[in-house]
Amino acid sequence: FKSLVAPRPIGWITTVDAEGRVNLAPYSFYNGVSDSPHMVMFAAGGSYGTSPAKHSLLNAQATGEFVVNVVSEELKEAMNATAAMVDIGIDEMKLAGLDPAPSRMVRPPRVARAPAALECRLWKTIDLPGATAHRPYALVIGHVVGIYIDDRIIKDQRIDTLAFKPVGRLGYSEYTTVDNVWRMRRPE
Asked: In this structure, are residues 13 and 27 in contact, taking their beta carbons and an 8 Å threshold?
């Protein structure tokens, strides 16, 4: 299934818990779902170590906020490091040698080196079928209230995708980067 729904962009989700501790984790079940209003979603599935659910899900529910950081090819190893299963309260951003940068509209920081980030307020979480207390699966939907874009990826007032080569997930342990772009207009 995962190999067929590919490539999937990676939402590198920053949250903070009720105590203000930073959490950073990659999600390949992530995407934009609306551009009016601007909305994104990520799906958090399963438990995580001794935690009853993924930390990103728990934190987004507790604080009502999260940030989606764009993973560039340059950051792929750091992104992978943040996928480690660590105890709640461990700062994966520090673990991966990354620096935070303050967000403007929400409390969770963004990854300073990320080429772009979407600051989100939680709109709704939806429990998915088959979710149980021991194996929660939820769709987390956020309203984008702020956007950060590194000036280095803007060319002629447009985002230059090839300037940062976003990383996507394929199946198994396979990833890809965007390195080929073409234009094609819809028929009128």
From this structure: yes
